[in-house]
Design goal:
alpha+beta, four-stranded antiparallel beta sheet, 3 helices, 4 strands, 31% strand
């Protein structure tokens, strides 16, 4: 009569394979987590810049009249806004009492070692100012 030996437990090879699979899975989860944190930080920066830029462009277009000009301004919290105001579609609005002014605002900020930026663009219809010489001729 032969005795059957029952083996209980795992062999060394099975344990090593299980540990390798677990190490790969843990590494993948940690990489996904850090990638998500970077994405969250990037979206936070972009949302903050967009909110500031939107507020600034609304302040600009509230003015009764807009003159053609270009300027740049820095904020206390590290943003730089480049603003350009120009008349557009002059040939189509020459005979109208209004003109179309295009406002382009580009927001710049530093994210780590890289400069990030985006632009907002809007158009506002403003009253055409009649020069004093034309009014005297009328």
């Amino acid at each position: 009569m032969q005795k059957e030996t029952a083996t209980k437990g795992f062999t060394l090879l099975e344990v090593l394979v299980a540990l390798a699979i677990m190490a790969i899975a843990v590494t993948m989860v940690v990489q996904l987590f850090s990638s998500n944190l970077r994405t969250i930080a990037t979206s936070r920066d972009m949302a903050s810049a967009a909110a500031r830029a939107d507020t600034r462009i609304r302040e600009i277009i509230v003015a009764e009249t807009l003159a053609e000009k270009v300027w740049s301004e820095n904020t206390e919290d590290g943003y730089r806004f480049d603003v350009s105001i120009a008349e557009i579609l002059k040939d189509r609005t020459d005979n109208l009492p209004v003109k179309l002014m295009e406002v382009i605002l580009t927001a710049h900020w530093m994210a780590g070692m890289k400069e990030k930026s985006f632009s907002l663009k809007t158009v506002k219809m403003v009253d055409r100012v009649v020069p004093a010489a034309k009014q005297a001729a009328l």
